[in-house]
Amino acid sequence: MAGERPPARIVAARLVLRAWQPEDAPLMREAIDASLAHLRPWMPWAVHEPLALEATIALLERFRDDFVAGRDFHYGIFTRDERDEREVLGGTGLHPRIGPDAIEIGYWLRETATRRGYATEAVEALTRVALEDLGLSRVEIRCDPRNSASAAVPRRLGYRHVTTLEANALTPAGEPRDTMVWERTAAEGASPPR
Prior knowledge:
By secondary structure, the chain is α+β, with helices and mostly antiparallel strands. The chain has one domain (9-188): Gcn5-related N-acetyltransferase (GNAT) (Aminopeptidase), CATH 3.40.630.30. The protein contains five helices and eight strands; from the N terminus they run ββαααβββαβαββ. Helix 1 (25-33) crosses helix 3. It is globular, with a radius of gyration of 16 Å. The two termini are 29 Å apart. Residues 15-188 form the N-acetyltransferase domain. InterPro entries: Acyl_CoA_acyltransferase (IPR016181), GNAT_dom (IPR000182), Ribosomal_N-acetyltransferase (IPR051908).
């Protein structure tokens, strides 16, 4: 990423994506605690939930420090309405863990925010930031093939399914898991085909 950093706040049509801050801990706690059964099958970190509020504050301090240092970019997904940034709909991020000039987008939603297009809207905004603002050559999304809702997001946005890695990861329960790899390149552009 050659010194470039994504913005700490991104405004989309219905959402605000904002770098997590320690004071967001109660809102994050509420979103996760209300959605544990929904998150546990797919998100390895959810197996260790619920965390105490103090542990969540420490996690968000680490996210903030990583963002400022340019190591990793975690965002809260917040409502954009009269209650701006008072409800956490989920989390997302730009994760520079897949090699040079590329980035991975991850995301999760609280259960009551699913099936409304929020993940698609958040990922579309981050795709634009990665390919247009940061000038990266490639963006990836990785997901469990059994998580059809998660796989629908890159499909809807015109990402190409490039491979499925067999038994390359573990489910949160510790069983072997395949991983679908979706990709969008700068040559394809940030906007999904219409």
